[in-house]
Amino acid sequence: MSALSSPVLFVCRSNQEYIKKPPNAFMLYLKEQRAKVKAELNITNSAALNKVLGDRWTSLSPDNKEKYFQEAHQERKLFQQRHPGWSSAQNYGKRKRKRTGTAATTITATTTTAAAAATTITATTTAAAAAAAAAAAPPATRGEGETGSQRFVFP
């Protein structure tokens, strides 16, 4: 790639600005190679194109990858100079929806009750499955058990 990218500010749906993180080495490789591979293989499906690019990245030699890692390191350093103290939590923090009125309370109560019922059903099913498995299993001496092909002993 030729020059380091400039700072990018985006505006999300709630009209709050957020700062785009610097690209990693693979993202820089994708940006450089996407158009070439798309023209070369005539692929329009982005999932298939990403699969091909991912396979090519994996098969790329460490020497060829090094230029992308160095460029990503430069991008990261420049980003830290432009945005000291920036944390991804500023962009990706929890966004709570604000609900107002009594309908929101009713919906929340119904959802909570349904979740509790599902938890109760799951716990009952799990307990029944554990009891059936214990009845079917041969008795083991205290503190011994087996998982897969590994055997372990508890103190």
Automatic annotation (TrEMBL):
It is found in: Nucleus. Its main location: nucleus. Keywords: Activator, DNA-binding, Nucleus, Transcription, Transcription regulation, Wnt signaling pathway. Residues 19-87 bind DNA. Residues 130-141 have a biased composition (Low complexity). The keyword Nucleus applies. Residues 84-103, 130-155 are annotated as: Disordered. GO terms for molecular function: DNA-binding transcription factor activity, RNA polymerase II-specific; RNA polymerase II cis-regulatory region sequence-specific DNA binding. One of its GO terms (biological process) is canonical Wnt signaling pathway. Residues 19-87 form the HMG box domain. InterPro entries: HMG_box_dom, HMG_box_dom_sf, TCF/LEF. Belongs to the TCF/LEF family. This is HMG box domain-containing protein. It comes from Oryzias sinensis (Chinese medaka).
